[in-house]
């Protein structure tokens, strides 16, 4: 009887259950910089030895970068170098990189982190100044060109930073820090406008 009641309660509750992305719909704009939450994407944290890189690159459809501070993009999928054997793979084309890695027999570890991370875009002429309000990284185009990626900090939160264009960045952070990071960037955009 308890099982039947539990099923009835679960069935009644399920139509109202809805997953909403953290910070959904939030954006802010100041003179020179816009800060906005990007749509959800599929992401994996990938670890692999040198011997597995070719097989994983083939399965993912994007060449895993081997040099520090680099990224590679192809067909809506981006691989960011985070360490000698570590990458963040982001898919914005609706494909599942975790499934692609599952078909590879070469040694690797692929963990789905789609619901752990939130992406925030910072764009405009003041984008670098906005991020530099709390990030010590040199974001000049000479030091951090288009396609550059790194794990760094913003204020007190760890982020992964990708430069998409001369005046556009993607900031990846854990959802538990997303409100802090978004607020920090919003305040930084107002400061950069002064």
From TrEMBL:
Low complexity composition bias: residue spans: 1-13
Single biological process term from Gene Ontology: sarcosine catabolic process
SUPFAM superfamilies in alphabetical order: Folate-binding domain
Region (Disordered): 1-31
Example GO molecular function: sarcosine oxidase activity
Full protein name: Sarcosine oxidase subunit gamma
Organism: Mesorhizobium kowhaii
